[in-house]
């Protein structure tokens, strides 16, 4: 059955998956959603015998129905290849009674690689399918991980350019070094004076700037997005929850049809939304546990039904979650509003103008699958230390937030359901925070001294992604105010 896509703010027009991938964001500011969530066509027992790549095909073919089998299999083969440092792509590690789904074995050691390794191939295929002659300009805001993963995916891909904005003082030293050393004649990296929400809001404004779109079209250019708002980012993320369940079944850790819970450290809401989609496809998932850091806007939302970004923005040791506007939540709001674009658009307008909105009691009833909680900075550090002291396994700061919230969930509910925790980044990406949590004595070391010491105490080789930037030259030193983003983009594109 074909799947078509429409905007969360106007569902009168349906487009194909490839068209939605190319556009990234709807012209009305809404996000593209499927007209239905397809059911898995194979049993979990059948999927248990499949590789990651085979599982990816079985899931993605159900959403990307205008791609041929050859097109989709080619995209998957090019994405999930030797750039990952393990053949299984997303291994499961058991520690302290939970299963950590390691999503950081790709080229940039963060979970964003899982989707951004394939997005360039989906996008170029989509362009060919739709006879697009323009050069595609990927425009992205990042809270740390998306930027580097997108840069790595699109660098030197013919027919594309990529521009990444990041908060200048809002990412880790390793994250920043990864971005500003990025090679590729088609890449452009800019730090902004502001936070991630400023960068994301600025990017959305550029997407909706009709005057800029016309100027770009005159130069045979058009925008698309590599942020998690692109449906081409969301669909590949569904795969790893299907794969995780199938692997637990294969290894005899769970019985057929036994439910599991899923914990996700959450910022922009795409990763946990993918788990929600997997559940609705038929994966036996019970609770979706949404873990926040001190920027706990999602925790407060699930607790009260009020989404309110009018609060202090906190810079934490888990910067990829330092977000007050969780863009992908709009897809869930649209769904629980009965797929009513008028209701959804009104709430998003309220968020834009007043910084908040409130859902109805009827909508709240549809969120019973979700549990929200948060971990503060001390709880995050304590969790890293306890896990290391007890098992020798080292968590990054984001995964530690998820692990701490999982402990709170079990304490609150006494629910002992087997649980998968999305491990979204390598600890090598946040070495100072991780090592300080294990022992404050490490704070005297330099960034790359810490890398080597982490490798020693964890008995894990330094990832290639970190070794590569140890001595790499800075290639991008652009910084601007958040009000200057349009002018910076036009300068890079040579159109103003």
CATH architecture of the largest domain: 3-Layer(aba) Sandwich
CATH topology of the largest domain: Rossmann fold
Structural class by SSE content: alpha/beta
User: How helix-rich are the residues, as a percent range?
Assistant: 40-55%
> For the terminal residues, how far apart are their CA atoms?
46 Å
Could you tell me the mean pLDDT?
Answer: 96
Sequence stretches where pLDDT stays below 50 over 5 or more residues: none
The strand order across the widest sheet is: 4-5-15-10-11-14
Which of globular, elongated, flat, extended, rod-shaped describes the shape? globular
Report on this structure.
The protein has helices at residues 17-23, 44-47, 52-63, 69-79, 112-116, 119-129, 145-154, 173-180, 196-207, 210-218, 231-250, 270-281, 297-304, 329-336, 341-354, 361-365, 377-391, 397-413, 431-438, 447-458, 464-469, 485-493; strands at residues 5-7, 10-15, 32-34, 92-95, 98-102, 135-141, 160-167, 187-193, 221-224, 260-265, 285-292, 306-308, 356-358, 370-374, 419-423, 478-481. The termini are far apart. The protein contains 22 helices and 16 strands. The chain is globular and about 60 Å long. The protein has 496 residues and is of the alpha/beta class. The protein has two domains: 5-87 and 112-231, Rossmann fold; 92-110 and 237-469, Rossmann fold. The strands form four sheets. It has a six-stranded mixed β-sheet with strand order 4-5-15-10-11-14, with helices on both faces. Strands 9-6-7-8-16 form a five-stranded parallel β-sheet, sandwiched between helices.
């Amino acid at each position: 059955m074909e799947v078509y896509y429409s905007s969360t703010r106007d569902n009168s027009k349906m487009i194909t998956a490839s068209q939605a991938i190319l556009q990234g964001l709807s012209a009305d500011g809404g996000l593209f959603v499927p007209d239905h969530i397809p059911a898995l066509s194979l049993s979990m027992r059948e999927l248990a015998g499949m590789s990651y790549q085979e599982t990816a095909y079985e899931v993605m073919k159900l959403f990307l129905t205008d791609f041929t089998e050859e097109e989709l299999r080619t995209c998957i083969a090019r994405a999930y290849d030797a750039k990952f440092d393990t053949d299984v792509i997303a291994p499961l590690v058991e520690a302290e009674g939970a299963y950590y789904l390691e999503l950081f074995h790709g080229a940039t050691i963060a979970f964003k690689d899982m989707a951004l390794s394939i997005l360039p191939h989906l996008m170029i295929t989509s362009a060919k399918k739709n006879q697009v002659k323009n050069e595609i300009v990927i425009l992205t805001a990042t809270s740390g991980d998306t930027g580097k993963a997108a840069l790595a995916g699109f660098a030197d891909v013919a027919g594309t350019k990529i521009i990444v904005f990041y908060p200048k003082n809002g990412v880790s030293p390793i994250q920043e070094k990864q971005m500003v050393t990025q090679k590729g004649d088609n890449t452009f990296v800019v730090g902004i004076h502001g936070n991630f929400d400023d960068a994301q809001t600025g990017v959305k404004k550029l997407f909706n700037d009709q005057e800029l779109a016309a100027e770009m079209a005159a130069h045979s250019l058009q925008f698309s997005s590599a942020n998690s708002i692109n449906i081409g980012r969301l669909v590949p993320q569904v795969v790893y929850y299907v794969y995780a369940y199938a692997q637990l079944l294969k290894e005899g850790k769970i019985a057929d049809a036994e439910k599991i819970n899923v914990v996700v450290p959450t910022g922009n809401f795409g990763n946990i939304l993918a788990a929600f989609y997997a559940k609705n496809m038929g994966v036996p998932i019970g609770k979706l546990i949404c873990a926040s850091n001190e920027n706990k806007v999602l925790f407060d939302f699930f607790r009260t039904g009020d989404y309110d970004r009018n609060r202090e923005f906190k810079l934490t040791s888990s910067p990829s979650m330092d977000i007050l506007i969780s863009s992908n939540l709009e897809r869930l709001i649209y769904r629980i509003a009965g797929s009513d674009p008028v209701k959804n658009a009104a709430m998003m307008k309220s968020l834009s103008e007043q910084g908040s909105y409130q859902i109805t009691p009827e909508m709240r009833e549809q969120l019973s699958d979700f549990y929200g909680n948060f971990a503060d900075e001390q709880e995050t550090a304590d969790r890293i230390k306890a896990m290391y002291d007890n098992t020798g396994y080292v968590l990054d700061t984001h995964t530690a937030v998820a692990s701490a919230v999982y402990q709170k969930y079990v304490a609150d509910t006494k629910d002992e359901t087997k649980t998968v925790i999305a491990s979204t980044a390598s600890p090598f990406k946040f070495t100072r925070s991780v090592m300080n949590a294990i022992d404050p004595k490490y704070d005297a070391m330099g960034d790359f001294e810490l890398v080597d010491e982490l490798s020693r105490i964890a008995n894990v080789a330094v990832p290639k992604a970190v070794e590569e930037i140890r001595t790499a030259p800075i290639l991008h030193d652009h910084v601007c105010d958040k009000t200057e983003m349009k002018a910076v983009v036009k300068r890079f594109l040579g159109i103003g």
